[in-house]
Amino acid sequence: MTNPISQVEYLWQLAMDPARPHERPTAFDRMLTPLHRWIWSDADRRVQKLFRFGETESDGGRDILRAAEVTSDPLLRRLYLEHAIDEFRHGVLFRHRAAELLKSSRSNPGFQGDWLAPGGHGLDDLQVDGESDVDMLAFLHLSEKAAASRFTVYRDVMQHDPPTRAIFQEILHDETFHMNYTLTQLARVEPKRHRYHLWRARLSRLWKTYLRLASGIAGILGSLFLTIQYFVLLAPFAWLAKRAARREQLGWTLASAGPSDSLDRQY
Ligand SMILES: [Fe+2]
Ligand SMILES: [Fe+2]
After folding, report:
1. Of the ligands numbered here, which is closest to the C-alpha atom of 53?
2. CA of residue 184 to ligand 2 center, whole Å
3. Model confidence, pTM
4. Per-residue model confidence as pLDDT tens digits over 145-193
5. What angle separates helix 74-102 from helix 43-70, to the nearest 10 degrees?
6. Distance from the CA of 105 to the center of ligand 1, in angstroms?
């Protein structure tokens, strides 16, 4: 197995071995299944989300391409290139499907729930330059695992739209490979401390998830408080303004004599 291409093919077969456990949705994603079903049930919302997923996948592909440029490990470079090609293809699949749906769509998607149903990987958080191979692999593994978990749920709630469901099924197959090869390579590159790096990456993702949820909740609370303020404070202000207007004298009034009499200056 000296040829790097055959190495990649070998790793693909290894990663997709049916004996290996495939990713199942996390308890959190499973718990949110009814919400995901509702989010994806609206055709307009589906269009917007698929377009955004397409962007996320293509952006992720660009970052992984950059990772292929900066790594000094020849096998990782090959795998990253395969990975980047997959992500670009996912982007195209999502965008084409969104364009098909757009033809029969209205224009107001309303609530998107992006902070609850984000675009797959979380690869948008990826910072390639300055990352070691180990940190990159740990980050990629967790991102792909999260993508596989979410895409499993999205595929399962998409019974009403078989073509979109088929796309999620196809992409899920690739994400499972990405999830498996990144873990295998992490264990190869850092056999003793790969679990430590996984936990570090997990904590970092947890923090980013918290920030995403917090900003989503802050957005909802902000809208709520502004609406309450509008209805509670506007009426008293309108009443005070009307009362002040009633006290104003109509027409021209004489100004009292004082220090502002000069015509040469304002005050
Ligand atoms: Fe992908
Ligand atoms: Fe992926």
Report:
1. 1
2. 15
3. 0.71
4. 999 999 999 999 999 999 999 999 999 999 999 999 999 999 999 999 9
5. 160
6. 25
